[in-house]
Amino acid sequence: MVGSWRFILIQSAILILWILANVSIKSERWDPYPFILLNLMLSFQAAYAAPIIMMSQNRQASIDRADAKNDYEVNQKTELELSHLQDKVDILRGIEIMELKVLLDEQRQQLLHLGELLRDVQAR
Asked: Tens digit of pLDDT for each residue in 90-100?
């Protein structure tokens, strides 16, 4: 909550009320103009807020490190899987090329046979 807009707005309102109350009330001022008590309270707040903020940042940093490690492992697995898929695609392409070569050879032989038949027919 310390780093939120809600906190900033609430604290700003409290500070404004504190200052207005101490400036406007002539009798019974509990913290006159230099506002030493207010300054002391803000110093205490800063002394406690800083370690809390640091702990929060350290916790977030450890979460970020764990997320980065997990992302790295997932990326490695994905890269390996893509490599396997590429190998399978290469094998399938090789098989297709071999089948196409066989079909091409059969067509050549059929064309040669048709050519011979055509020459025989023309020779008669």
From this structure: 999 999 999 99
pLDDT in tens, 68-116: 999 999 999 999 999 999 999 999 999 999 999 999 999 999 999 999 9
Cβ atoms of 22 and 35 closer than 8 Å: yes
80 token code pair = 């390996």
Half-sphere exposure of residue 68: CA atoms within 13 angstroms, side-chain side:
6
pTM here is 0.51
Judge contact between 29 and 19, C-beta under 8 A. Answer: no
Two tokens, residue 23:
């400036």
Q: How many CB atoms lie within 10 A of CB 112?
A: 10
Pair 30, 17: CB distance under 8 Å: no
